[in-house]
Amino acid sequence: MEYRERTSSGGQIKDIQGFVDGDKLVLKWLWPNGIDFVYIYKSCEDEAATADMINNNNARLYTKEEYKEFYGYYERINEIEKITYWIFPCVKENGKLLLIDQNGIDNRITLSLGKANIFYSIKEKRRLFKDTKIIKIIVRCDKAIEKEALCYVIKSGASPINKDDGKCYSFNQDFNVGRNQLPEIEIKKDDSIRIFFQDGKKYGEIYELIRE
Length: 212
Fold this sequence. Notes:
The chain has helices at 64-70, 200-204; strands at residues 3-4, 14-21, 24-30, 37-44, 59-63, 73-76, 82-93, 96-100, 108-112, 116-126, 132-141, 150-156, 167-170, 178-181, 185-188, 191-197, 207-211. By secondary structure, it is mainly beta. Strands 1, 4, 5, 7, 8 and 9 form a 6-stranded mixed β-sheet that branches. Strands 10, 11, 14, 15 and 17 form a 5-stranded mixed β-sheet that branches. A 3-stranded antiparallel β-sheet has the order 2-3-6. β2 (14-21) and β3 form a beta hairpin. The longest helix has 7 residues, at 64-70.
């Protein structure tokens, strides 16, 4: 795919907005004067994209007429993760479409496409004539999750309300899709235990943590 460098501040995609509507992603943006075509390219959250990477096999050509007809760009959601969308303007010269290499800032947006569910259960087993109890934790995941995403917190006398409300422990293994039964934990009889995100802002955008 041929491209050209920017010749002015004009002809640039701006004000991209994106949101999830049911099982569809919706993108809207401000079309500059003189631009009737764009290429829409998807990448991982941290991947950079430039015009020389774009071709008909890895990007979607979208026209201004289509945009007007459908009131934006719609795409069915198949992934549950963060994805960056890049929109590259195109111009037609001598019968050829040429991409305009934009600044990589105004023509991109990163979105969280849905949330994967993480279900967990905590079962206690009391021990006769002992001041401790055995804890069994089961975690069920819609997708594989790295161990750094979760932690468990133990607090004496009451249930912890966040990851800093008690003594925080990391898990020693990643979580596979489906049912994960973790090694038993022995705690004091008056202790309570709960699971939290290690980083609520980071992981809370892509996962829903649900106690069963």
